[in-house]
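Hi P.,

Sorry for the delay on this. The queue was packed all week, but I finally got your sequence through. Input first:
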Amino acid sequence: MNILVTGARGQLGMSLAERAASLPKPVPLLLTDLEELDITDPLAVGQFFLEHRPGQVINCAAYTAVDRAETEQESAFRINALAPGILGQACQKYGARLIHLSTDYVFNGDSDRPYREDDPTDPQGVYGISKRDGERAVLDAAPESVIIRTSWLYSEYGHNFVKTMLKLGQEKDELRVVNDQFGSPTYAGDLALAILNILAEGARFPRGIFHYANQGVTTWHGLAEAAIQAAGLPCRVIPIPTSEFPTPTRRPAYSVLDTSRLHLLLRQGIPAWQDSLRHCIRQLQ
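Then the structure:
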């Protein structure tokens, strides 16, 4: 069975490729990005499905520039909302199952407990709204799909918060990082393994929305400080309030995801964020 991965040059797509190849029985993936497949083009998607007949599809493609989305709304909605619906329609037509990646930004960040899958969505910016609309488009087009919401994703690949902090920590004596936004960092390598386990379950794995993030809660300051310490850098990390670091899009003050539903279904546990962060930094070093 062909397994199609879209957005394969992003950090989750690259983590999936690495993990799939390193398994005792490697899982071959059909890796695509914009150059190989424009998922916003229904005709191109239909032709690709007709030629390759994927049995499972993992949609890692996304517009993730949260602040820029406010001024590039057309691009954000085309990639985050229109394209997932097109993939869902193709999956429904050709008998494939879609695993679609979404985000904690579909919530407003005002909760005082971890968000469950059935909590009402209330995105606060264009990025979050486009991702929420993408979830709806997927479920409308292909009700048997699996949607995985994740948060604070980082890895050895691409651009992400952890790599930025390490780079700045090598250049500066101190960093100022917000300490009043709470969430759960997610190592893309761990999420990739979870997705591969879902693939292995096939039709036995239930449809619907699930949450995946590493265990534990911290702030952006806590994550930055842990990364700097794990890398052995002499840089100080100073906590600041969000009010001292304004952004075009309001960040969720609290975006912790309740992962208990997926935790029960996975064959492997969900690691603590501190353990996965140290592993990632060892890989980078």
